[in-house]
């Protein structure tokens, strides 16, 4: 009796195992079929990304002559860039008085996205002859390598004697706006510890570079309510309706 | 003498005013020219956005037959969706035991982005006959209106008597994983207070929908180290190298 029961149970178990095995096999086949379909979807996603990249590259090229024209016009307005920076809340928070004095010699800013866009970008800062350093151009580059790790590098600044704004000292007038004593434009420029979350780099690339004029004009709008004819005209064109415009 | 000095000063002031006025006028003209160039750049940006949207729409259409095929295969695997949800850390945190029981009747999930993509998306949940509600399809939609304000709406759930899982009561077995007693799949489904930051909606759309298989398989990989032949094959194809795969 005990043996018979055992056999029955064993047979039942065998049957169950066979059914289980069959179900497992079918399920495994389904999973492999889903995986094949998924591969087709992934291929389409890759193709879509490539096509979108080509559109972005095409328009990057089309925008260049207008960026050039804009830069040439901006260079003729004294203190354009330092004004735009000071009027941007996030950038302003980083600037101390020394920064603002040195940035009065900043005549041109250029943001260049690398050809494949996702791999990084470069910001070129062009300076007039100035009392602080001898470089004409200071460049900071942000890279994503093949494994997606971010890194940055920048031009070594050739400081004139006693003028190194990244060094603490009596000549450093200290922070005007931020509580973090370590922050300044030039310490940001030389800092590569946090390339993956470089807030100022992103702000310049995504916020200021697309439309620096709105930041240059931001303070004037506050100071001269109503403004002159030209500014009213700009208002009418809706250029100050942008959500991202700082409301200081 | 005093008068003479006054006149001189006044003349000087007049000259200075004239020079200032001239400089202001030139600067205003430069600003208007920059604004014109900026308008050209803005137009190019709009054109780029439109072209990219067209590429995205084209590939959305191309993906549809594969999504259909994938859905049909998935429907033949019992508990596919509830398993994928439970294996996703963020979704799992929202599910209580009642949710998991009810979601065993979920046979199909569909994410549909609206034609202009930016304006929102819809998630359709298809259910088998079940003890909880009489609906076949539960749909939650997320909209952005013209001014960019988000809103959401969802199918009213026709709960069977005493089965309303959004009502607190003795039949509610409570949260398994989260400390927030108010959260559950069905309370999320019916909640429209936070449409702009709907975490679960975004996770389903951006994380699970692009590749639900990886979440369905996630637990098997942990439980059966090495796995069977089929799984090893999937491994070889690199499907588990994805950064976003949960490592529980």
UniProtKB/TrEMBL annotation, chains A, B:
Biased segments, Basic and acidic residues type: 8-26, 158-167
Top-rank taxon, per record: Eukaryota
Keywords: Cytoplasm, Nucleus
One GO biological process term: nucleosome assembly
Gene Ontology cellular-component annotations: cytoplasm; nucleus
InterPro entries per UniProt: NAP-like_sf, NAP_family
Region (Disordered): 1-26, 144-179, 215-248
Record's subcellular location: Cytoplasm; Nucleus
Feature: compositional bias, Acidic residues: 220-248
One Pfam match: NAP
Family in the record: Belongs to the nucleosome assembly protein (NAP) family.
Xref: PANTHER family: TESTIS-SPECIFIC Y-ENCODED PROTEIN
Protein's recorded name: Protein SET
Organism field: Candidula unifasciata
């Amino acid at each position: 009796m005990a043996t018979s029961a055992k056999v029955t149970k064993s047979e039942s178990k065998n049957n169950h195992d066979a059914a289980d095995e069959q179900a497992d096999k079918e399920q495994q086949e389904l999973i492999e079929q889903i995986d094949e379909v998924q591969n087709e979807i992934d291929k389409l996603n890759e193709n879509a990304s490539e096509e979108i990249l080509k559109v972005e590259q095409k328009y990057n090229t089309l925008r260049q002559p207008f960026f050039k024209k804009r830069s040439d016009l901006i260079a003729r307005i004294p203190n354009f860039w330092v004004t735009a920076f000071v009027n941007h809340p996030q950038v302003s928070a980083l600037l101390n008085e020394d920064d603002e004095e040195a940035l009065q010699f900043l005549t041109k800013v250029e943001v260049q996205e690398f050809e494949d866009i996702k791999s990084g970008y470069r910001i070129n800062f062009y300076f007039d002859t100035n009392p602080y350093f001898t470089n004409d151009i200071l460049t900071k580059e942000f890279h994503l390598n093949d494994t997606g790790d971010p890194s940055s590098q920048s031009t070594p600044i050739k400081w004139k004697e006693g003028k190194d704004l990244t060094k603490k000292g009596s000549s450093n007038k200290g922070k005007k706006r931020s509580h973090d004593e370590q922050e300044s434009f030039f310490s940001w420029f030389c800092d590569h510890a946090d390339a993956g979350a470089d807030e100022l780099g992103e702000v310049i690339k995504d916020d200021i570079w697309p439309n620096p004029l709105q930041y240059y004009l931001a303070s004037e709008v506050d100071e001269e309510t109503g403004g002159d004819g030209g500014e009213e005209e700009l208002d009418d064109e809706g250029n100050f309706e942008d959500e991202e415009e700082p409301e200081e």
